[in-house]
Every structure is written in C-alpha cells, then in structure tokens.
Amino acid sequence: MNSSFLEIRKISKVFSPNKNVEVKALSDINISIHRGEFAVLSGPSGSGKTTLLNIIGGLDGASCGDVLLDGIAITALDERQLSHLRRDHIGFVFQAYNLIPVLTARENIEYVMRLQGRSQAECGQRSAEVAAKLDISELLDKLPNQLSGGQQQRVAVARAVASKPKLILADEPTANLDSKSAANLMDMMQQLNEDEGITIVFSSHDPLVISKAKHSIVLRDGEVVANDHVG
Amino acid sequence: MFRVLLRIALLSLRRRLSRSLLVIAMIAMSLWGLLFMEGLYDGMTEQVIDNAIRSDSGDLSLFAREYRLDPGLERLLAEPAEIGRFLDEDSRVRSHVSRLRQDGLIATAHYSRNAVIYGVDLGAEDRHGRLASYLDAGAYDFGDKGRGALLGARLATKMKVTVGQKIVVSAQNSANDVSALSLRVVGILKTNNMALDENAVFIEMNKARELLMVPEGVSQLSVLLYNKEKVAAVQQGLRVRFPELDVLGWDELYPALRQGREMMEIFNLITSLLVFCVAGLGIFGVMLVSVLERLREFGIMLAIGTTFREIRTMVFVESFILGFSGYGGGVLLGGLTLLYFYNFGLDLTMFSAGLDAFGMDAITYALIRPSYFFTALAAVSVATLVSVLLPLRILKKARPIEAINKI
Amino acid sequence: MMFVHFAMKNIRAYRNRSLVTLLLTTLTTALLVFATAFMDGSHQKMLQNAVEIYPGYVQVTHQDFRDQPSLDNMIFDAKAVRQVLATTPGIAAFAARFESFVLFAGAEKAVGGMLTGIEPTAEEKLSRLASSLVSGAYLADHDGNQLYMGYELARRLKVKVGDELSFVGTGADYSFAADNLLVKGLFKTGLFEFDASAAFVSKGYFDQVMAAANYASHFIVLPANPSGADLLAAELNGRLDQQYLAESWRTTMAGLVQAMLVDSIFGYLTLAVIFIVIFFVILIYTWLTVFARMREIGVLRAVGTMPGQILQMLVTESVLLAMASVVLGGLIGGALAYYFHLHPIYFSFSEEQFKQYGLAASSMPTAFAPLVILRDMAVMFVLAVGSTLYPIIKANRVSPMEAIHHV
User: Fold this and answer.
1) C44 touches A at CB < 8 Å
2) Which of B288, B341, C129, C301 has a 20 to 30 A CA-CA distance from B35?
3) Does C283 contact chain B (CB < 8 Å)?
4) Vertex C325: Cα angle to C368 and C273 (nearest 5)
5) Can you give the C-alpha Rg of chain C in angstroms?
6) Where are the alpha helices (DSSP H) in B53-79?
7) Are residues C258 and B354, on separate chains, in Cβ contact within 8 Å?
8) Mean pLDDT of B343-362
9) Cβ B282–C280 below 8 Å, yes or no?
10) Closest to C114 (Cβ–Cβ): which among B23, B37, B114?
11) Please, what sign has the CA dihedral across residues B14, B19, B22, B24?
12) C14 and C108 co-located in one domain
C-alpha cells in the first residue's frame, strides 16, 4: 500500500486570457499519493485546487510537468486515450452534482459501466450494491430533479464508484450541502474507501471534510504549502 | 439610458455571436430567396404582358362593337382618323396605330395553313410598339412595291418558309369572294405573343386594302399611354366620346395574362407568408432562450432599479438588431442579385423550346420594384416584433428578481 | 442500443426542439410530396391530353416531312406501311390521316383551316375526336361529303349541324380541289386553337376528292403500353422502309415536354426558397438545444464518453426525429396525393391560362407514385438530419472543461 500510485511531478499551469496577461494558477507542484489513500486538497478559493484536480483527471492539460497514474503518464495521452482512462480508471464527483437530467438515478449510476460495455445484469447488480451502501436504493427510479441536493450528490458518488475506478476525484463535493448531509456523505465515502480500496482525492475548504483526510495537502496561490500524512 | 440599453443589447448579442449570426443569416437568406423569386417571376410575367401590349393590344384597343366576338370585315372602325385626332389631343396618349385584320390562308408551292392577315404600317408599328425589335430574321421592310410579308416565327417554322421565299395569301374579301395575293417573305417576327407568332402574316396596309377590298376603315386601333396608371381614366374618356365602339384594356383582350399575373401575385404572397412565419419561428426560439438564460441577469438589473419597461425595450432592441441586420444582408444580397438579372437577364436559352410553349422570352430580365423592399421591411418588423411578445410574457411571469438567488 | 434509449429520453425531455423539428419537417415533407405529386400529375395530365386529343403517342411520317411538310413528302404507299404496322407486336391500334389546309366558306364567311381525312372507326381508338362530340354525330367509314368540325370553327363560319359549306384547297396531285360539305357533327376538345381550325371527313371521301388514294400524311399508332412509346418507335424504325420515320410524342411534342420541365424547375426553385428557411430554423433550434445541454455534454465527456459516442447520441436524436417526421409527412403528403389522384382538382379560375397554352385540362389529378414519394421522403430525411449536423459537430468540438463551465 505504500507504493506511489499517483505521482504529480513539477506541474505548472499558466493561463493567458490574452497576450499581455499571464496568470500562474499552479507552479511546480510535486505530490505523491499512495494507493487507497483518502487525500484532500485544501486551501482558499483561487488557490488552484480545481485546476489541479482537472489536470489529474485529464480534463485539462498542464503547462509543464507530468502526472503519473499507476505508472501511466497521463499528460502524454491523446484525447481518445484520455477518454478511455476517465471511463475505466477515474470517477468524478462534481460540486454541482452534474447528473444527466434525462436519466434516472439508476441509469446515471450505470452509465459508465454501460460505456465500458458491461452486461445489463452486471450493471444492475452493481448499481443495487452501490446504492445499498449509499442508502439510495429507494431513489433509483427517480429523476435527478426529484431528488434533494444531498441525494443527488450520493447518486453522483454512486456513479463515480460503480465502475470500480482506481481513483475518484471529487471537487468540493459537499459545498452545496447542509452540514448534516455533508457529514453523512463523507462517512459513506470513507466507508467506500475502506471497503473497496479506492483512492479518493478531494478538494475542499470544509474543515469537516479536511478532518476526515489521511493525507492533507494545502495549496495557496498555486503552490503546495503543506503536505502531511495524518494518522 | 437608451444608450446603455443598446450597449447591453449589443453585448448580449455578441456574447452569443454564432447564434446571433445564424439568425441574421437565416433572415438574410430567406429575404434573398424571396427577393430573387419575386423579381424574377414578376419579370417573367411582365415580359409576357409587355410583349402582348407592344405587339397587339396596346394599353387599350378600340374595335367596332362586338368585333371581338365576331371578327369580320363588316365590323370595322369606320373613321379611324377621327379617333386618331381625338387621341392626338390627349397628352396622356403616347402613340396609337391602326390595323386591318382578316382570317385567311397562307400557302407555299407545297403546303398551306390557316393564318391571320394583318394590314399594317411598319413605320407606325415600330414607333408604337417597337415592332422592329422583334425581328428574328430578314428585314423590317415591305419593299418599294409593298410586295413583302413578315411572318410570325412559329407560322414560318410550321410552313418551313424562310426569308426570300414566295407565299400566297388568300382570304375572303368584303364582297364575300376569295381573293389571293402573291408575296415574298422579307422577314420573320418573333414577338413571343403566341397568337401572333402562330398565325400572323403582316402585309402592307394598302396591299391588305386591295386584297380585302376595303378602301377605308380598320379593324383595330391600338393605343399606348405614357403612364399605365391612367389606363382606366383614358378608357372611360374614350367610352364616353365613342359610345358606339368597344374600348378594351389589354387585360380584357388577354384575360389569360391577367389571370397569370394574379396567380403569380397570390403565389408570391403565399410563399412570402410561409417564409416569414417560419423565419419568425426561428427568431422566436432564439429570443426565448436568450431571455430565459438571462433571467438572473435581468433580476439583478431589476434589483438595482431598472424598470421592466426598460428591460422590455432592451429585448425589443435585440430582436430588431437581429431582424434589421438580416434585412440589411438580405436586401444587399437580393438587391445585387436582382440588379444583375435586371441588367444581364437570366438566360434560359437551353430551354427555349419549352419557354416558347409558354410564350416566354429565352432571356428573362428581373424586375426591381421598391415595393419588394418595403414589404420585406414591414414583414421583418412584424416578424421580429411578434416573435418577442411571448418571451417577454414568460419573462414577466418568471419574476426574474427571484432568480437572483438561484444558481 | 444505450444511445438510442438515451436519445429517446432526450427527445422527450427537450420537447420544444423536438416539436418544432417534428412539425417543420413533417410539414415540409408533406409539402414536397404533395407539390411533386401535383406538378407531376398536372404535367402528365396536360401531356396526356395534348397527346391523346389528336397527335397520338407515335407518328409515322415520311422522313423529310418534318423539315419540309409538302405534298412531295407524303407517304405514297400507305398499304406498305399498314402492312408493317399490322405485323408489329405491341401495337393496340393505328390509322392513316391525310391533313391539308383549305379555305372553308360558309354562307357569310370564309376561314382558313385544316381539313383532314381520317379512318373514323380506327380513329376512335386513337384520339379523343369521337368522344369530344358536342352535337350531331361522329363520322362513319363510308360517309361521303359529311364534315365533323371544331365547335369554334363552326362558330366562326356561322354554321351548325345540318348546314352546308364549301371548301377550296389543293389536291394531293396539286390539282385544284373544291366541294360542298354537310356538317354532320361538332366537337370540342378544349384545345381552343384546334377547335377553331380543324375539321374532318372520312378518308374514303377525302381520297376521292383530293386524289389521295393510298396516300397519307402520317399514321398514328397507339402502343399497347403507352409508356413504351419510345421503344415502339425505335422498333418501327427498324421494320419500316428507311424513307419513313417513326417518332414518339417525346419528339413530336418536344416543346411541350420541355415546357413542363421548365415549370417543374421553377416550382422546385420556389420550394427551395421555402426549404432554406425551414432548415435554417431546424438548425437554429438544434443549436439552441445542443448548447443548452453543453454542461451535460461536458459531464458525459468527463466520465469517459468518447466524442464519437456523443456524436452518435446526438445524431441518433436527429435521425429519430427526422425519421418520425418524414414518415408522418410522407403519409400526409401521400394521402393528399392519393385523394387528389382519385378526385382531381378543378381549376376554374385559370381556365383562360390553360386555353392560352393549348392545354385542354383544367381538372388536374395529382400523381400518386409511391417510389417518387419515397424519393422525396429520402431527400427530406437527408436535409433534416443534415441541417442538425453543424451545431452537433460544433458542440462536440468544445473541450470537456469548457463544456462543464459553459453558461
């Protein structure tokens, strides 16, 4: 469990909204995260948390540096390979839930597995299993707009987890939730982390979330200012 | 304040540039198509009518009573000179010309056909309806002795006669005997007035008088005016002055052409309506989405003191900017296209046989009427106005001020 | 399969776009299908009328007759031609005619016209002469100087059934030919020009008075299958002596055939203008929905959906919508075409126009041709799907990052 699973090496990201302006979002980030870790990126707004998550998830490119996921340099992959990587190995949880509005909770959860080409039966079994763990079994046939924020976010977590990815990236998953729902969600995610051994990387500035982390990375103005393993 | 609203409207449109451009392109393209169609079709219709007017009916024609129902030498205008003098005094009349007409037969050494013999004065005909411009082959001249004849193009084709060949025309004269006259074809006229092209043999007026034994009187007196809008007035004047005559407008003589023009007008109207309704639907969709996606923005504007009236003005302004940009583009494209076809015409020579069957010229020159642009402007205005009414209602009901706190 | 399911859900969820697309595509398809059926139907009817009233599907003439229609270029051995026609398979009926142009003289009037010798019994199957009878009786094979004449010609000559009139013409041997005729019947085909100039006698009598025994200006031939007229003409050209020429109506009436083509071209031009706008609107609505779903597309991309799969999903939506509306539109248009095929549309208001163009029909059945309807449906399908591709491709080019943050 101690081998480096996610290796972030010398990542920098510069935005240039126009020719004369350059904004340095990330500079020279070096982080290494082990398999099965429950890691959190914290820091104030604008510190670069989301940008870093997007680069790890292959949604955004870095200006320089490498990201190695389980030995694969994702910064070197093309669009197609990135799509496959996201489909097969990474689960996403967004701040704004981002469920597909026309699909039911169950279909949302099964979507990625279906993309992977798994059978209907396998998808059904797995979604039921995950839904039970997240306590949303009753909600499976509802559409996203029939669910509360906390319920939607649990469905989103279920979608991220269902395909058994190696890594889950969650960008401020509790930001839109009340504190009870937030705590509830964090407990469930922690449970999943332990049960399924999935590496989870959060971004958050919620002390509750930060307190659950085993590996806490603090960013400020695009630089790592603290990188501690807890417990 | 209006300047600020205008600026916001412009910036909103720019924010969705592709979408705005699409709407503008849609309006421009539909106008382009409509203008092109209208100008071209009107050009076609008017060309056919113009041919009939110039070659035959004039704007008005005078006949002896009931001549049209029963044409014959016993129904002639007895004193054309008197009518001529009356017309000469009328400043609205541009020109007039008289013709003697009789049904008969044309024959070559090998073949014969029925024909209509017209006794005419070529000089007067050319001054009147530019008849010489229809000359397809040969010369526009009956010769010193007046022994020449000009033939309608289709008649010449059917008879297989060419310039220089001899023909014999025969017809019943005023004494009810059949008399004949030997002539030489000097020219072929292609007027695209089917009745003439199919049947007409033009001969010198005096020769016709000899052949038909009609020393005086004419069958028809055709009148052209300077201004087409005066036709009804002049017609009325003539009817009062010559109550014993039939005074008929071109549209009474060629009801088919009038019908054709009416059909074309209805057809154009329906097409335009259809196009503008559909285009209005397009503008509506875009304005609706553009209003709904900015609920929050409108809410903020209301919260800081903008009135709903001002927001409504802004939405109208946006819609009109789209509409009028499209109108401008369409008018530019359509106008230039029409200008090109106005000057150079649409050459359909490859279909000339088919066009002949419709009595149409092989080259059609488009018309450009100011009314095209005014009606289009009105239609675009209405379409843009109507298409934002519903979005505005929805906006009012949606209470944008409550949308501020939503994400 | 998952994407079809997904697409169905989206079609239901984005109701406005679906409805507008469905409605417009359905209407457009119905419009195209019906317009085509109407144009094809009326053209077929006009051509069929024009062909069947008198000229016939296949004509056999002397090969020089069309270029030089003289008495020198007649068929001088009608028996030989008759023999070939009698032994050629695929011929339903045939008959000889001898056309000549004469001057008819009634008690008061003389008018040029066409006097044709026909074989009355055979002619009955070949043209609509017999069925166009309006008063008196049709000819019999052994009639003598009995005349079957056009209604308008009789009106011009002021004669009626039972009256006598005379004619003056040229015999086949260039001799002077004249006789008195007795009006036996009047016909009205609806072709004004034809009704105003044509008259018929039995060929037995004609041959005698015109010295034309065993002569004919042409034979008309009715193929067992009228649509195979061209093939039959080709077949006959192989069998007949090479001084004769068989031509189908497509050649003898080339002008009219082309006129119908020109009419279709302008019809489609108008439809094109309407379609441009309609498909622009479909494009705009697709644009609006696709961009409203930008965030969703971004999420789909983020969780690993390939751009190709998103394309597949969006195109599937368009295809399903297009398919549904094309089928619906095809059914509506097809039903209308079928209904008006059985119950022809009657154009009383444009009778004058039809008359002018020598088209006897003012009652127009639409064509009901399933293959053509399918073709039009296919065209509309391609256009409907095609007009959604631009927004789909454009939206799919946006990176997942931009898409998720799209507002």
Assistant:
1) no
2) B288
3) yes
4) 75
5) 31
6) none
7) yes
8) 82
9) yes
10) B114
11) negative
12) no
pLDDT in tens, B307-334: 888 889 889 999 999 999 999 999 999 9
Domain tally, chain C:
2
- Tell me what the mean pLDDT of segment C311-317 comes to: 91
User: Per-residue b/e over B227-252, b at no fewer than 16 CB within 10 Å?
Assistant: eeeebeebbebbeeebeebbbbbbbe
CB contact under 8 A, A102 and C295: no
Nearest to B330 by CA among C277, C383, C278, C28: C277
The pTM for the full model equals 0.80
Does A14 reside within a domain?
no
Distance between alpha carbon B74 and the CA centroid of its chain, in Å? 36
Alpha-carbon span A138 to A134, nearest angstrom: 11
Give C309's contacts in chain A (Cβ within 8 Å).
115
Distance CA C127, CA C148 (A): 14
Is A206 contained in some domain?
Answer: yes
Claim to verify: residue C149 and residue C45 sit in the same structural domain? no
Nearest CA distance, B247 vs chain C (angstrom): 21
Per-residue pLDDT of chain A (231 residues; tens, 9 = 90+): 446 889 999 999 998 877 788 888 899 999 999 998 999 999 988 888 989 998 998 888 888 999 999 888 988 888 888 888 888 899 989 888 888 888 899 999 998 888 888 898 999 999 999 899 888 999 999 999 899 988 999 899 999 988 889 899 998 888 888 888 888 888 888 888 888 888 999 898 888 888 888 899 999 999 999 998 875
Domain boundary among C228, C252, C276: C252
Q: Do C296 and A80 touch (CB under 8 A)?
A: no
User: Which class for C80: exposed (0-12), middle (13-18), buried (19 or more C-beta within 10 A)?
Assistant: middle
Distance from CA of C388 to the nearest CA of A (A): 20
Nearest one of A213, A141, A131 to A170, comparing CA atoms: A213
C236 and C317 in one domain?
Answer: no
Q: Which of A92, A101, A115 is facing C13, going by the closest CB pair?
A: A101
CB pairs under 8 A between A and C: 61
Residue A113: give the domain boundaries: 36-65+78-229
Q: Based on the fold, state whether residues C279 and C361 are members of the same structural domain.
A: yes
Instruction: Tell me the CATH number at A114.
Output: 3.40.50.300
Across the range B278-303, mean pLDDT stands at 86
Instruction: Tell whether C300 lies on the interface with A, counting CB pairs under 8 A.
Output: yes
ipTM of the complex in this document: 0.81
Half-sphere exposure of C154 (CA within 13 A, CB side): 24
Q: Is B257 within 8 Å of C356 when comparing Cβ atoms?
A: yes
Please name the residues between 355 and 374 in chain C that touch chain B, using a CB distance below 8 Å.
355-358
| Residue in A79, A97, A213, A199 with CA at minimum distance from that of residue A155 | A97
Q: Chain A residues with CB inside 8 Å of C304's CB?
A: 83-88, 90, 112, 115
Long-range contacts of B124-128, Cβ-Cβ distance < 8 Å, separation of 24 or more? B124/B97, B125/B97, B127/B95, B127/B97, B128/B54, B128/B58, B128/B95, B128/B96, B128/B97, B128/B222, B128/B224
| Nearest-neighbour CA in chain B from C312: distance (Å) | 23
* Non-local CB neighbours of A91 within 8 Å, separated by 6+ positions: A112, A159, A160, A161, A163, A165, A167, A168, A169, A198, C303
How many domains are contained in chain A?
1
Strands B60-64 and B220-225: antiparallel
Q: Are A26 and A13 in contact (CB under 8 A)?
A: yes
Residues C280 and C396 in one domain: yes
C243 in contact with B, Cβ within 8 Å: no
Residues C389, C311 share a domain: yes
**Residue in chain C lying closest to A89 (CA):** C304
Packed helices A120-134 and A149-162: angle between N→C axes, nearest 10 degrees? 130
Residue A137 phi/psi, 5° resolution?
-55, -35
The beta-carbon neighbor of B72 closest among C68, C109, C113 is C109
